[in-house]
Specification:
There is one protein chain. This protein is an alpha/beta fold. The protein has one domain (about 1-265): Alpha/Beta hydrolase fold, catalytic domain (Rossmann fold). It is built from eleven helices and seven strands. It has a seven-stranded mixed beta sheet, sandwiched between helices. Helix 3 links the parallel strand 4 (about 80-85) and strand 5. The radius of gyration is 17 Å and the shape is globular.
Length: about 270
């Protein structure tokens, strides 16, 4: 249910990595290693209904996701990094943890106003059925749709779909799993970095869509953050796969003061 990477130089702090819908800890295979080489101990956990996590019984809502993550933490995380749904979980988790978490990184966090949840649920069901019937077909689809990804990224994406409990995710998106991205970011007082894909066509991407942070949600979030805390990257929804070097550069710059234990160097939020 978890992957760890140990800092290869004197540890600067701990990072928690949270994946998105129909993904798993494997999505961080490159990012975890790169952050560890920069002096960060990293932990990635599988969210309920994903990867190697136990099967979900009952409703899968945001409280369930956060509670499960908290049970997997042996020590507080200094920084929480979340992609997509993982970004929403990161915000909710930070809201429940008074100490420890010092900063958040949200990679293309979706706002529900910009997501056609019916279409997303249908796509999840199709992808899961394809994974059961013809894994190579799903692999070919992912490769064709994501030419910037490494072969390892394609394999991890396919594995995430194959291992996910698709029925639980589909049911959750039908009602129990809800959030208000603008309200959550507005309430968060810790330093926060949002990474957004520049390619915003489409609603919610699994194959050929664009950034999940679009429409009114994108405009509202953009207004909450200073220019250096809303970073656009050439890519779509999975920016850590589309442009890993640019992703790492933006994140490394943001977390550098935390690694120096210099709280005064962290720019204040624009409220």
């Amino acid at each position: 249910m978890a992957l760890t990477w140990t800092a290869t130089q004197p540890a600067r702090g701990r990072i928690l990595l949270l994946h998105g819908v129909m993904s798993s800890v494997g999505t961080w295979h490159r990012i975890g290693a790169e952050l560890a080489s920069r002096g960060w101990d990293c932990l990635a956990v599988d969210l309920p209904g994903h990867g190697s996590a136990p099967r979900v019984r009952g409703s899968l809502d945001l409280d369930t996701l956060v509670g499960d993550v908290l049970t997997q933490l042996a020590a507080p995380a200094d920084i929480v990094i979340g992609h997509s749904l993982g970004g929403i979980v990161a915000l909710a988790l930070a809201g429940r943890v008074c100490d420890g978490v010092r900063a958040l990184v949200l990679e293309d966090p979706p706002g529900l106003r910009g997501v056609d949840t019916d279409a997303l649920r249908a796509q999840i069901a199709v992808d899961a059925a394809t994974a059961r019937a013809d894994l190579d077909a799903l692999r070919r689809r992912e490769r064709a749709a994501n030419p910037r990804w490494s072969d390892a990224d394609v394999e991890q994406s396919v594995a995430g779909v194959a291992d996910a409990q698709a029925d639980a995710v589909v049911d959750a998106l039908a009602g129990p799993l809800r959030w208000n991205l603008y309200a959550m970011i507005s309430a968060e007082r810790r330093p926060l970095l949002v990474l957004a894909g520049r390619e915003v066509q489409g609603m919610f991407p699994f194959a050929n869509g664009g950034s999940a942070l679009n429409g009114r949600d994108r405009a509202d979030v953009r207004r909450l953050l200073s220019d250096d805390r809303f970073v656009e990257i050439d890519g779509r929804h999975c920016l850590h796969r589309d442009a890993p070097d640019r992703w790492l550069a933006a994140v490394a710059k943001f977390i550098e003061p935390i690694g120096r234990d210099d709280r005064s160097a962290l720019p204040a939020r624009r409220l």
